[in-house]
Amino acid sequence: MSFEPADPVVRQLRAALTEELPGAVALRHTIHADPYVSGEEGPTAAFVADAVGAGDGVIVAGTGRLIRVGDGPCVVLRAELDALPVVEQTGVSWSAGDGVMHACGHDVHLAALTAVARAIHRVRGRQASLAMLLQPREERAPSGARDVVEERVLSRMETCAVVAAHVQPRLPAGLVAVTPGVVNASADEFEVTVSGSGGHVGYPHTVHSPITALCQTVLNLQSLTPAGVDPIHGGVCMVGRVESGTTNNVIPEQASASGSLRLMRLEDREPTLERMRRIVEHTAAAHGCVGQLSVVLGEPVLVNDPGLAAATTGWLSELGHATTDDFRSFGADDFSFYGHHAPALMMFVGTGGDHGLHDARYLPGDDVVGLVADALLAGYLAAAPAE
């Protein structure tokens, strides 16, 4: 943090943020060592709220918090509370136990947001124009972001913008992606059920195997579904679970599979789902079986506000950070719900390394807390109302 911004208030914010970082790193270790899965994050929310020192805020989405820092129109900075059911393998002294781990960097996000909120509160007081959104259930349905939107807590206050930053090992360490437009895919969950007629494996001519039909259905879904989407925009249909049968010499009467459909354009959703239904039904029918497709609609496409992205890029440059504007992925984040109600910006902070998100060995360095904090500060400066 050697760069000196020209604006005196920003210099004060940067200095205050630098002073807050050691405490934020310690906070990160505590959060990391005591994680909670989706829907059980209340203790983490209370702990972070206490660390910020701006009051308890209001409870949102069951186990989350919305904490106002200052008065008037505000910029909402969001961080996620939940951890994953992963057995940690990082080996650090502050590792988590009990098969739960912050393997997606949410501990870093929370620590960085705490540092930024404390710094802004110190420097700007009642003129802070900030709200901290400690959001639950980003990792698992029902979506915490969707609940926050449906509870209308953001629309009841003058929300200028909603901003977040997420660690990303697919980017080089230190690089911050601030990409305008579409940056993450929509994510819908689907399940395929194939019903046939079972019997003895030694008499295949007397059965209609749902396993055979399901296997071909899985291959067709993963190859034919994306073929119906313009490759400029792209689509991904992947099956992550296949289940059937109880023993090796009996053909069962039913087989099932489930997976995820991801798209980069909202207008591709309905025609693609209809294509999937035809694939399931016709493939099963070709094997003398009946196929059914059920779908649970998830996160919409995540779209960054172009003006907010451009302004934030300028502030990141002022703070001395390298940026890129062309990082996109078929990852999904329920942050996308906020963009339908206010200007929104999701940044990605590069961590590099050999391990990816949700890996039991993924552990960003403590220095990343400061980088994420700077990204959030830049987003706040870009969106905050003029004095």
What CATH calls the topology of the largest domain is Aminopeptidase
- Tell me the structural class: alpha/beta
Helix content: 25-40%
Q: Which range does the strand content fall in?
A: 15-25%
CATH architecture of the largest domain: 3-Layer(aba) Sandwich
Order of helices and strands: HHEEEHEHEEEEEHEEEHEEHEEH
Number of contiguous helices: 8
Number of strands: 16
Order the strands across the largest sheet as they lie in space: 1-2-4-3-5-16-6-15
Domain Peptidase M20 dimerisation: 189-285
Keywords: Hydrolase
GO molecular function: hydrolase activity
Organism: Flexivirga caeni
Give a summary of the structure in a few sentences.
The protein has helices at 8-33, 42-52, 106-124, 144-150, 210-227, 269-286, 306-318, 367-383; strands at residues 58-60, 64-69, 74-80, 130-135, 159-168, 176-177, 181-184, 186-195, 199-200, 235-244, 250-251, 254-263, 290-299, 302-304, 323-324, 344-350.
Characterization of this structure:
This is Amidohydrolase. Keywords: Hydrolase. Residues 189-285 form the Peptidase M20 dimerisation domain. GO terms for molecular function: hydrolase activity. It comes from Flexivirga caeni. The chain has helices at 8-33, 42-52, 106-124, 144-150, 210-227, 269-286, 306-318, 367-383; strands at residues 58-60, 64-69, 74-80, 130-135, 159-168, 176-177, 181-184, 186-195, 199-200, 235-244, 250-251, 254-263, 290-299, 302-304, 323-324, 344-350. The protein has two domains: 8-184 and 301-383, 3-Layer(aba) Sandwich (Aminopeptidase); 186-299, Alpha-Beta Plaits, CATH 3.30.70. Strand 1 and strand 2 (64-69) form a beta hairpin. It has 387 residues and is an alpha/beta fold. The strands form four sheets. Strands 1-2-4-3-5-16-6-15 form an eight-stranded mixed β-sheet, sandwiched between helices. It has eight helices and 16 strands.
